[in-house]
Structures are given as C-alpha cells and as structure tokens.
C-alpha cells in the first residue's frame, strides 16, 4: 500500500480544522455574553488544573527552561489572564456613552490562527485560546514541530473543557501534523480571519505577508539602564530574577545592562554578590561562538539552557552556583552576539560616560535588534524617566521592575499577555499587550449632535423662517421705500 505524503495529510488536516472552526464560530457568535463567559471560565479552570503536568511536558519535549517556572507561566496564562478579562464585555453592546451620544458593538472576527512558539508552548496556547474565545472567535492552534506533543495535549484539555461547558465542536482546534505547507495554508486560507503570530522573525514576516490580517511580535533585545539614583541592590535583584526565570526564554527579559562609569564598580560588585559570573576576554569569545548560527540567527542550542549547561557546551570553567554569565562589551552590531537577543542566562554589560551617552547606547542596542519591544529603567529620578520615555523606540518602558514580569503585565498594570505588540517601528500592527479587544471588530453607533449648517456656516432653507427673504428681495423693497419717500418730499 502506497503511503500518503505527510505534507498532503497535514494540509488536509488544516483545511478540515478551519472548516470545523468556521462552522463552530457560526454557532458560537450567537451565544450571549454570559454563555461565552461560562465557557471561558471552564477553559481557564481546566488549564490551571493541569498547569504542572503541562509544564513538565513542555520542559521534557523542548529541553528549554525550568519546569517549575513553566508552572508559573501556565498559571499566569490561565488564572491571571482570566481574572483580567472575565468582566470584559465582548458580546453585543460593549460600551455606552450617553453624554457623547454613541455606543459600541463588539463583532467577533471568525477563525483565529494561533501560531505557537516552542519557547513558551503550553502557556501561549492557553493564553491565545482564552483571548480568542472570550472575544467570540474560534481558534485553530498551529503547533510548533519541536513542541507538538505538549501543545496538542494542552489544546485537547482546553477543547474538552469548552465542549463540556456547551461550546460547539471544533471551536478549539490544533494541528497534530505540523508542517510549513500546513502553516502557510492556515495563514492564507480565505476563512482565516486573523493571525496571532508569536515566534521567529521569519515566521512573523510570513504572517504579515500572507494577505490575512495579522498581529505579530518581533524579537526582544531590551537594555536595562541602572541610573545613579537607583537602589542598586534591588535593581540587580530584579534583573537577575527576571533573566533567570525559566532560563531567560521570555522575550521581554533583559539582554543588556547599561551603567555610567561612576556606577560601574558598585553595580559589578552587586551583580557578582548576587550570583553573576563575569567572563574574561577568552571566555567571552568561546561562549560567543555558540550564541549565533552561521546565518546570523540565535542558536537554538543555547535557548533556555542553564549556566551549567552553557559552560559545558562552550568549555568554560564557571564557578558552581553562578546564575548568569556576563560579558563586558563596548560595541553593538549584528556580528556582536552579546548585543543581540539571547533567550538564555547571558547578559552584556556596557559602561558609558553620562546619561546622554546611556540613552544613545540603549537606542543603538534596540535599533540593532528588538526595536519596538521592551526596555527597563531603574531610577528614582523623574526627569530621567521622562528623558527615556520620550526617546526610547519601545512599546513598553518598564520602571523599577522586572523585564519579564513587567512586560507580561504581572508586576505592572499592563494588560496581562504573552503576545506583546512592537508597534510600526518593530514591524507590528499594534503596540498593545494583546487582549480580547484586539480580536474584535468594534462597530460604533453615533448619534448626530450638530446640524451640517453649524459646520459649514451656511443657512438651510428648510430650517429658516418662512418670512426670511433673499438679499435681492430685500434690496428691491428698500429701493421702493426710498422711491416712495422721494415722491412725498
């Protein structure tokens, strides 16, 4: 018996999933807000219940990160995201403004294509599913080949919970035979309403060039500036806690530390005290060879690996208990691996002469890679905050907090999210932390509050008094009156 081509099978599976999702959406879009909310709640609770199991599966399959930290991410994606969206109106009239005389109607889009990365596979699947179904859409999850099993299992748990809560069959689908042709088909299919793209730069660009509306995010490469006014001990703690969480696989995590010369020794001392290991020149070159591949992209072998594993890989003799590897740098560029995004416990360390030089360097780092994404600042000086806020080419400037948890909206009041828009400068369609309202068309019903004549400055004959007359009529009457008066005199 002749074996069927795997790509053809994956294509057919994808088309079937889209067809089922479209039919499910046709039913789901008629559901009330309360019915939608009950389904969303059931899905969130099911995800949280299996947070540990899914975290272990993700770690075992991908080899990235720390499974205990993945439990935190899964819980964030389920419980925290749910708590932030549970009271949001997304069905029917979602906002009324009696003062300005308008109201807004939420209209679901249809089938959402959710592209899932291997770095955060289970948590991103949970998050994208929740915001999709909360906004009244169906979703087809495109599993990353290197994380297929944990993504498929996550989607099954979510789909089963949704169906038990009354959702139509096919509302949540997942590709079990991921392939490039299948992903392309999902993105370009006429029944796909929107693409939620999280992953590598090439994949995000493909989403935007597919012809289907897309929300994508580019790479992060956030510098962290520690100002003279900062609490150095606390700033270092925040940075290291952030960079070591899940071995640095979250793109909002810090990639570089920038300080003024007058702060260099104090910051270095504190970094070493809290577990950082500063590489010498020879060690930096050894490790640097493993950060990038020949084509200039990040080497997946280093992603989410521990310091111990990175040291073994590159032949370094690093002291036991080191948390982060730091290389002192003075250049920025595509060929300097330390000035690029490193989704692993590796940081660059830069020193500059003054604040202006710090701002310029942070901009240079971001424009090299990571523009539009995230940057962090540790300071108590409001003028420094304003200076950075006005000039940093980022969508999120985080003050006195962790890049990882601040960017996701866990330690800040940003929308809790695992997809972080990078704005036009970063090649994204939005600078938002993506939530359910980004997955709705919002219809605005506006009442007239002025007549056109108030805008144009003209007078309408319809609204004018019936006894009003034209200029010519008035001049004729005046002329006759003058003639009569002349005759009398």
TrEMBL record:
Aldehyde dehydrogenase domain span: 13-404
Any one GO molecular-function label of the UniProt entry: oxidoreductase activity, acting on the aldehyde or oxo group of donors, NAD or NADP as acceptor
Organism encoding this protein: Clostridium algidicarnis DSM 15099
Keyword annotations: Oxidoreductase
Keyword Ribosomal protein: no
PANTHER family named among the record's database cross-references: ALDEHYDE DEHYDROGENASE-RELATED (PTHR11699)
Protein name as it appears in the record: Acetaldehyde dehydrogenase
């Amino acid at each position: 018996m002749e074996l069927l081509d795997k790509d053809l099978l994956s294509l057919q599976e994808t088309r079937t999933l889209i067809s089922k999702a479209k039919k499910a959406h046709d039913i789901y879009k008629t559901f009330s807000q309360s019915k939608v909310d009950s389904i969303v709640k059931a899905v969130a609770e099911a995800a949280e219940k299996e947070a540990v199991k899914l975290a272990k599966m993700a770690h075992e399959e991908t080899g990235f990160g720390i499974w205990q930290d993945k439990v935190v991410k899964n819980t964030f994606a389920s419980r925290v995201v749910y708590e932030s969206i549970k009271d949001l109106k997304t069905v029917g009239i979602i906002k009324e403004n009696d003062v300005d005389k308008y109201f807004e109607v939420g209209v679901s889009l249809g089938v959402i294509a959710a592209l899932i990365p291997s770095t955060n596979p289970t948590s991103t699947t949970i998050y994208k599913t929740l915001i999709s179904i909360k906004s009244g859409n169906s979703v087809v999850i495109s599993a990353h080949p290197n994380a297929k099993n944990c993504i498929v299992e996550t989607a099954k748990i979510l789909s089963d919970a949704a169906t038990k809560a009354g959702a139509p069959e096919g509302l949540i689908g997942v590709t079990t035979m991921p392939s490039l042709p299948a992903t392309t088909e999902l993105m370009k299919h006429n029944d796909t309403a929107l693409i939620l793209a999280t992953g590598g730069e090439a994949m995000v660009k493909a989403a935007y060039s597919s012809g289907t509306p897309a929300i994508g995010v580019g790479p992060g490469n956030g510098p962290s500036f520690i100002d003279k006014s900062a609490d150095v001990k606390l700033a270092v703690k925040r940075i290291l806690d952030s960079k070591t969480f899940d071995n640095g696989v979250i793109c909002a995590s810090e990639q570089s530390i920038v300080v003024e010369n007058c702060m260099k020794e104090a910051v270095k001392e504190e970094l070493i005290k809290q577990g950082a290991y500063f590489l010498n020149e020879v060690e930096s070159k050894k490790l640097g060879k493993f950060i990038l591949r020949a084509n200039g992209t990040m080497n997946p072998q280093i992603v989410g690996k521990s310091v111990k594993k990175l040291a073994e890989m590159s032949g370094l003799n690093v002291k036991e208990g080191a948390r982060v590897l730091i290389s002192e740098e003075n250049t920025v560029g595509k060929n300097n691996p330390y000035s690029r995004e490193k989704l692993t416990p590796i940081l660059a360390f830069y020193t500059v002469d003054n604040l202006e030089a710090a701002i310029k360097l942070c901009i240079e780092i971001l424009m090299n890679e990571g523009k539009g994404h995230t940057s962090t600042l540790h300071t108590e000086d409001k003028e420094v905050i304003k200076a950075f806020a006005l000039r940093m080419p980022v969508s999120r400037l985080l003050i006195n907090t962790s890049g990882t948890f601040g960017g996701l909206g866990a330690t800040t009041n940003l929308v809790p999210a695992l997809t972080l828009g990078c704005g036009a400068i970063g090649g994204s369609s939005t600078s938002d932390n993506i939530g359910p309202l980004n997955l709705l068309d919002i219809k605005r019903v506006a009442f007239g509050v002025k007549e056109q004549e108030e805008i144009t400055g003209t007078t309408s004959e319809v609204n004018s008094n019936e006894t009003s007359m034209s200029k010519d009529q008035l001049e004729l009457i005046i002329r006759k009156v003058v003639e009569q008066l002349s005759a009398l005199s």
